[in-house]
Amino acid sequence: MPHVARDLFQKCREYRDSADARAQGFYPYFRCIDETQGNYVVCEGERKIMIGSNNYLGLAHDERVIEAACKATRMYGAGCTGSRLLNGTIKLHVQLEEALADFLQREAVLLFSTGFFANQGALASLTEDGDVILCDRENHASIIDGCQFAPAKLVPYRHNSAVSLRNRLRRQPAEAGKLVVMDGVFSMSGDIADLPPQLEAAKEFGARIYVDEAHSLGVIGPKGRGTVHHFGLNDEVDIVMGTFSKSLGSMGGFVAGDEQMIEYLKHRARCLIFTASLAPAVAGGVLKALELMQKEPERVEQLWRNTRKMHEGFKRIGFKIGSTQTPIVPILIGSEARAFQFTQRLYEEGVFATPAIYPAVRYGEAIVRTSYMATHTDEDLDLVLEIFAKLARELGTFDDPAYAEPGKRKANVFDFRLQDPEGEDALRETARVAPRNGAGVHPAVSR
Ligand SMILES: Cc1ncc(COP(=O)(O)O)c(C=O)c1O
Q1: Identified catalytic residue from 53, 113, 125, 187
Q2: 13 burial class (0-12, 13-18, 19+ CB within 10 angstroms)?
Q3: Best residue among 119, 183, 240, 245 to mutate for probing ligand 1, ranked by most atoms within 8 Å of CB
Q4: Is 93 noted as a catalytic residue in this protein?
Q5: Residue 16 and residue 12: Cα distance in Å, rounded?
């Protein structure tokens, strides 16, 4: 009797979500950029204002950063062709680690090839069986996924709520090792972590504290040092993680902490040991970007002028922008279909942004996620506001019941086979989060 195995690829053949969205003319992902100067891109021969990038300080396109990346390539080659542990450590890696440790006032720093790996490497290596990781419910996917590699139990708590955190901490075995993890600035809502009371709760229960500064570096805190410095709590927070894929205009990530902890990670984090190190161009470019970020504080100041202008501008038009306090400005649309339609019309009008839907945001609270840069001009921003106002009128955004009562509407024309939203928390409460690579997850959500 021949062995008949289930066809693993059947689900791929049945997969229709993106094709359906394309057929309706609303597919917003994987748009190809032919040219870019940062605040502008050219797609399909047309210039668009970019408001969907995390290039907060415009450093990805700074000539000095580009030159440093080229110089590093000429000096060390196009790649390191090996892991840090073996043959892939170059002087630029060590210099970048030292520069970051100095900037963040930490004993030591360890680079990873992406921010995603930095979270995965740290969370998986620092916890053991019987430990507990307490996670803000709106933490980034790399934290949630990192927890899947960790032997610890994952316990979510209500977004930015010290009360919820304390309640969850109270229910854990007293002797369990505990790690509280939160984004410093949340990637979808733009909220700043309410760090002081959460830190107090963590301390009360002997928990270590870990802050992901991906969206806060170069954005908040003195000289852009991040959320932990913004609150003056650098000495109290055990671990800080960050990325180079946002303000520092490149890719890669890092973990910062005390020397002994970094030494341990260097020899335990599998996604450091078994992957190639940061390319020389990346390390050279980031080193220069870090230097410029400190030398040119006017970039951060301009970023905040632009941020305030957009917060006020969107509110004046009548948009709901949630509780954002940062350059990440989520524009609530409500239903997913309308968020896709709105984004498509933006694109046609010359504005590049992307929608975020469940599970990147709460169910029924689809947004157009926008983010601003120091290099946006007043003209760019005025035009963006004008186009948003025009489209809100054209598409009846404010008259949509899903806008008035976000979260209540269940209709979803693209049928992404969403999971029961009530079931989500139950799922996350389990010792390990079930992999979300199937039903309910749109392929292109970013959180
Ligand atoms: C909060 C947060 N942490 C980590 C990451 C992962 O960073 P990277 O893009 O460097 O892998 C991201 C990226 O979007 C993020 O928003």
Answers
A1: 187
A2: exposed
A3: 245
A4: no
A5: 9
For residue 10, being part of any structural domain is answered with no
Is 329 a member of any domain?
A: yes
- 259-307, pLDDT tens digit by residue? 999 999 999 999 999 999 999 999 999 999 999 999 999 999 999 999 9
Q: What residue ranges of the chain have pLDDT lower than 70?
A: 407-447
Same domain, 219 and 335: no
Domain that holds residue 343: 15-50+297-420
Q: Is 142 in the pocket of ligand 1 (CB under 6 A)?
A: yes
Q: What is the pLDDT of residue 417?
A: 29
Q: Are residues 266 and 335 in the same domain?
A: no
| Cα 7 to ligand 1 centre (Å) | 33
Distance from Cα 399 to the centre of ligand 1, integer Å: 35
What pLDDT score does 413 carry? 34
Confirm or reject: Cβ of 114 under 6 Å from ligand 1.
yes
pLDDT, tens digit (0-9, with 9 covering 90-100), for 114-146: 999 999 999 999 999 999 999 999 999 999 999
Beta-carbon contacts of residue 14 (< 8 Å; ≥ 6 apart): none
The H-assigned helical ranges of 42-151 are: 63-76, 91-104, 115-126, 141-148
| 3-state secondary structure (DSSP) of residue 424 | helix
Nearest-atom number in ligand 1 for the CA of 253 is 10
Residues 373 and 262 in one domain: no
User: Are 40 and 81 in the same domain?
Assistant: no
Q: Indicate which CATH number applies to the domain containing 403.
A: 3.90.1150.10
Question: What is the tally of structural domains in the chain?
Answer: 2
